[in-house]
Amino acid sequence: MTLQQSAHPPMMMQIPLKLPDAVQSALGRVEDLIHQIVDSDVNVLRDASRHILAAGGKRIRPRLTLLSHFAVGGEGSDTLYRIAAAVELVHTASVVHDDINDHGVLRRGRPSVNALWGRTFALLTGDFLFTKVYELMAPLGDLNVPFAEATIALVEGETLQAAAVKENNFTREVYYDIIARKTAALFRASAYLGAVTANDDMTYADALANYGFNIGLAFQIVDDILDVIGDEKKLGKTAGIDIEQGRGYTAAYAKAVDSSDPMETIKRKVMNADALSEARDKSRMLVDSAVAYLDLLPESDAKIALIDLAYQVVERDF
Amino acid sequence: MTLQQSAHPPMMMQIPLKLPDAVQSALGRVEDLIHQIVDSDVNVLRDASRHILAAGGKRIRPRLTLLSHFAVGGEGSDTLYRIAAAVELVHTASVVHDDINDHGVLRRGRPSVNALWGRTFALLTGDFLFTKVYELMAPLGDLNVPFAEATIALVEGETLQAAAVKENNFTREVYYDIIARKTAALFRASAYLGAVTANDDMTYADALANYGFNIGLAFQIVDDILDVIGDEKKLGKTAGIDIEQGRGYTAAYAKAVDSSDPMETIKRKVMNADALSEARDKSRMLVDSAVAYLDLLPESDAKIALIDLAYQVVERDF
């Protein structure tokens, strides 16, 4: 696979966030840990895992964990790095399995694991990443409880989505339930676990959990908008999948859309509808309320970075 | 799905093992827990999970856990029931994913999840069961460490198998590495965790770990024989998959077999070869050495049941 890999150099689609030095250095530790934990003498698992992980991705979940930790007085720890690596891996596992079900061929600017290694190995690579999450978290005692809840929610959310599409019942209520589980629950856990590993004050942990949850909702709404109007090259993944499959924000909101229309027609219809500007507005409101939760935190560089992160989530175009 | 389910009543393919009353009652608790933990308001996940779990299966892994626990003086505990449920669920998750990759349509005497709900939901049901394992184990502290190791080994073993078939490199050495990881590692962990939750004496735990590991190897060899010569109805799952895909014990041992032959020809060739009797001999030896590890355990009904279990693993025809 070396040849195929080198033909697709990593696209670092990271949000250009200015991180405090301590957080930047912690993120480096997390990257090392991610790279190291997926080592295996089973070549295909190691290679496929590193292929998808080395492609970058926005790393928004581990950043949330690290910033939440530093924002309430933490100074980093092995426990923290494990959690930050685990939240990225659980997301990556779900992405690898997603690309099987959706036939996504492009992910993080590279061919998907599915496209390069085929369905059987993609399925096993996703499973492998889930078990590596478990290995990372295993020594961390009761921190496993909220983390397990978030992973269950993620799978339930993905399933609700597939069921809603199948039953042609993609209402606004269903849409919010889906994104709360498949995206916002892990964002909440990422922030919450960063906070509780730094500080016993549950007021901080709850505030950051709520911040994370709202950012997660906003993030997914924006993701769904970008699926329709975004530039596939910038996005680094197959676009139009959500709308083609009759799901995502526009499916719930722009009822004029008929998924049997050609993609270009759908795109034009959606662009003309109010759905997209409504979605941007909605995601901005969520981010505002997320940021309001940070009011009670002491001032710090990490807090400033959390506020920046929130606004970049909605203003990004990739 | 109710109609389809009731058309296929559960086949309890349980090894007819006489269990001590306390163990039998503990197994009832474990069954309740398994049923309860896969509850979800996402109907398809709950229904598909209960479909595959209610079909029975041999429940050999939770029995190993319970018997090991009682054999070293344990009297049952919530921790024990959680572990016993978790070892069954992790096995079930892997079976559900297996049936996607192998196109297995029959499992535990019923249509597979894949056959009834389709690939997308089968993939998500397997993921859901993995996350439910995680939920069960999350409160159990350091017991998660050996358990995580076993789940990683399982996925690695499945992957080694797929890779060996693809590369046409299914040697005896590769075969043993595969079954050690995909089957014996979880058997070892099942027995080991039963023991350590009852008794601090690591001599016992290590003996039971070795017992479990050897039983696991024997179990898989017998499974592979039955894939070729067994009665699909009794087995309750699609037979001939291993040999059709050029894997399993006979693929490693009976080199005369050509997987492009019609199934009946392959079957006849294998029956005529020494491979099968060699495999039975090999599995009997493994069971003998497994049982020898039990020598240092105090006499008890649970110990007798462990010995019975070992011999039934090799003598079963389903």
How would you characterize the overall build of this protein?
With 318 residues, chain A is mainly alpha-helical. Chain A has one domain (19-297): Farnesyl Diphosphate Synthase, CATH 1.10.600. Helices cover 72% and strands 1% of the residues of chain A. Chain A contains 16 helices and 2 strands. In chain A, strands 1-2 form a two-stranded antiparallel ribbon. The longest helix of chain A is centred in the last third of the chain and has 28 residues, at 202-229. Chain A is globular. The model of chain A is unreliable at 1-13 (pLDDT under 50). The interface between A and B is large, with 43 and 43 residues.
Summarize, please.
The first copy, chain A, has 318 residues and is mostly helical. Chain A has 16 helices and two strands. Chain A has a single domain, classed as Farnesyl Diphosphate Synthase (Orthogonal Bundle).
Using brief descriptors, characterize the structure shown.
homodimer, 318 residues, mainly alpha, Farnesyl Diphosphate Synthase, two-stranded antiparallel ribbon, 16 helices
